[in-house]
Structure formats: structure tokens, C-alpha cells
Write a structure and sequence with these properties.
With about 100 residues, the protein is α+β, with helices and mostly antiparallel strands. The protein has one domain: Alpha-Beta Plaits (2-Layer Sandwich). It is about 25% helix and about 35% strand. It is built from three helices and six strands. The termini are far apart.
Length: about 100
């Protein structure tokens, strides 16, 4: 059985991007989440951290990219992204006015 992830370790950071701010108008918010977190854990973490009701969670694994510094070539790590849809009337103030 896999080791449980604490709810405060699930959300790593909010993704404040141009696309993310457009999604906020539709009551959807994007987060970088722990790679082993499932949709139920993400839902619980967002509800606990921001005191909102989550209707839906969409997740995707973003592939690493090739990066180059001088002659050396490396690879960035892949990471997991979650788009969380909130109930009508709920908002996360963290994203407002960005």
C-alpha cells in the first residue's frame, strides 16, 4: 500500500500564467501538485486550504523539457498539473488581481 500524502504536501504551488488567469474567469484554478497525489487527495487539499467546494479535478503529467547551458544538455523533471473547478460562488482570492 502506498504511503499517504499529507493534504498540505499535495499542493506545491499555484500556476499563475496567462492561461491560468483566463481559466479563473471560468471558476477554474491551476496548481502544480505532488506527483503521486490522486484526484481525491487534490480535492481534499484545495477544500481544506482555501475553504471552498471543489466540483471537478482534471490532472495531467507535464513532460520534462530539454534544456541546454553552454555545451551541456540536460532534462527538466516531469511534473503533475491539476485544474480544479470550483462550485458557483466560490473563489480563491490568491489568484485575484494578478
Amino acid at each position: 500500500m502506498a504511503k499517504a500524502i499529507h493534504p498540505y504536501q499535495v499542493l506545491l504551488r499555484p500556476l499563475i500564467t496567462e492561461k491560468g488567469t483566463l481559466l479563473a474567469e471560468q471558476n477554474k484554478y491551476a496548481f502544480q501538485v505532488h506527483k503521486r497525489a490522486n484526484k481525491l487527495q487534490i480535492k481534499e487539499a484545495v477544500e481544506k486550504a482555501f475553504n471552498v467546494r471543489v466540483l471537478k479535478v482534471n490532472t495531467m503529467v507535464m513532460p520534462g523539457k530539454t534544456r541546454r547551458v553552454g555545451r551541456s544538455v540536460g532534462q527538466t523533471s516531469e511534473w503533475k498539473k491539476a485544474i480544479v473547478t470550483l462550485a458557483e460562488g466560490d473563489r480563491i482570492e490568491f489568484f485575484e488581481g494578478v
